[in-house]
Amino acid sequence: MTKACIICVAITGSVPRKKDNPAVPITITEQIESTHAAFEAGASICHAHVRNDDETPSSDPDKFQLLKEGLEQHCPGMIIQLSTGGRSGAGRVRGGMLSLCPDMASLSVGSNNFPNRVYENPPDLVDWLASEMQTFEVKPEVEAFDLSHIHQAVAMNRDGRIAGQLYIQFVMGVKNAMPVDRDVFDYYVKTVERLAPSGLWCAAGIGAGQIVVNEWAIAAGGHTRTGLEDNVRWDKTTLAPSNAALVSRVAELCEKYNRPVATSSEARKILGLRPMVSG
Prior knowledge:
Elements: E1 7-10, H1 28-41, E2 45-48, E3 50-51, E4 57-58, H2 61-74, E5 79-82, E6 104-107, E7 112-113, E8 118-119, H3 123-135, E9 139-144, H4 147-158, E10 167-172, H5 182-195, E11 200-205, H6 210-219, E12 223-226, H7 228-232, H8 243-256, H9 264-271
Parallel strand pairs: 1-2, 1-12, 2-5, 5-6, 6-9, 9-10, 10-11, 11-12
Antiparallel strand pairs: 3-4, 7-8
Helix pairs in contact: 1-2, 1-8, 4-5, 6-8
């Protein structure tokens, strides 16, 4: 297999930085430095949240703007994907940064259980977020926590609420949601191939399941996500010293399966994004 593999790095989630996970970048400066190292290691997409001064998740567009500007300067060409996830706010606040016109943004198209709460994605909010992404020419990365989310993404693509080529990410290993299960993973792949033959998919595993799902995705010809957000977020402790270290181990898996690591320019072509801006 010689198909290039896109590596996404999710640099930070919502877990406070404690003595057990000092590698998690919190400030804008730390996030830029950590992303730059991951970019040098082979990541072509940065999936990003921002934090308040007390380390809690933030939806502040000004912070997203500072992060976006720093990444554009220090990681030229890297695909910037901002999170519209529910941990940083409620309702339309979650999409307040879409007017910054990042390359991509995450889009959860349905609700599901998290370890201690319901991750709510009501239909009217999903439709609004999708509409804002079209308005500002932001490509959605659909985060599928459940099989129904794949079906919903396909339906939204068919009726025009999600434009262009679908990009669906399977999220596996969240407690109380879909476990890391090989039969389920294989069925997800078959479902995307059946319902959206021109669509693309990637996969992310949570906690100890991260490296397992990384290998499944690479071996099956898809793309994959790694990073401290997924590695730390759910078990409260880090399993790696840095985002760059996690990207490096994914790059090693790509070599194992004869998958070239996609450069940012290649990833943009694969995903149908606007080309890199030079200068």
